[in-house]
Amino acid sequence: MVDIAHRVGIKTPASQVYQALATPEGVAAWWAEDTHGDRVAGGTLKVRFTNNGQEIGAMEMKLEQLVPGELVLWRFLAGPAEWIGTHARFLLKQEGDYCIVLFTHEGWKERVEFTSHCSTKWAVFLMSLKALLETGKGQPNPNDVRIDNWN
Question: How far apart are CA 1 and CA 78, in angstroms?
């Protein structure tokens, strides 16, 4: 199995980071503007990515585990084939003024070119999360940083 891993320090309380990761409006503010769904463990979130108004991807994930201020765990139910059954884990820990986000996208069957793309995009979106919580404005899709020639 292959995992993607990132560590980001965000100068804000872990409770605020948790809200941005565990609620549809929070996810919409840093990952994909078109986000809808639940806010309770066992529920689902659906996100839709667009470019120039055209859908370029959609995902559905189960809110598998929610521990306020400590952990958000998603399991991908729909989306790119490589993502089905994988998990996105956001482990939160407060260190002084900073919430440290230890992120892993776990359970890839193998490392492929798409893994590298997703690793970079996760970093882009984690920086969007940081910007949202430190400045009040993230860069969710469709306003995210483009990293390649894919739509």
Answer: 19
Query: Mind listing the pLDDT tens digit of every residue in the chain (151 residues)?
Result: 899 999 999 999 999 999 999 999 999 999 999 999 999 999 999 999 999 999 999 999 999 999 999 999 999 999 999 999 999 999 999 999 999 999 999 999 999 999 999 999 999 999 999 999 999 999 999 999 989 876 5
Instruction: State how far the Cα of 7 lies from the Cα of 90, in Å rounded to an integer.
Output: 10
- Closest C-alpha to 74, from 91, 99, 57, 58: 91
What phi, psi does 27 have (nearest 5°)? -65, -35
**Distance set, CA 135 to CA 12, 32, 82, 98, 101 (Å):** 10, 18, 33, 14, 17
**pTM for the full model?**
0.96
Give the end-to-end CA distance of the chain in Å, rounded to a whole number: 27
Phi first, then psi, for residue 110 (nearest 5°) are -155, 160
Minimal CA–CA distance to 86: which of 105, 65, 64, 113?
105
Tell me the three state secondary structure of residue 142: coil
Return the structure tokens found at 110: 């193998």
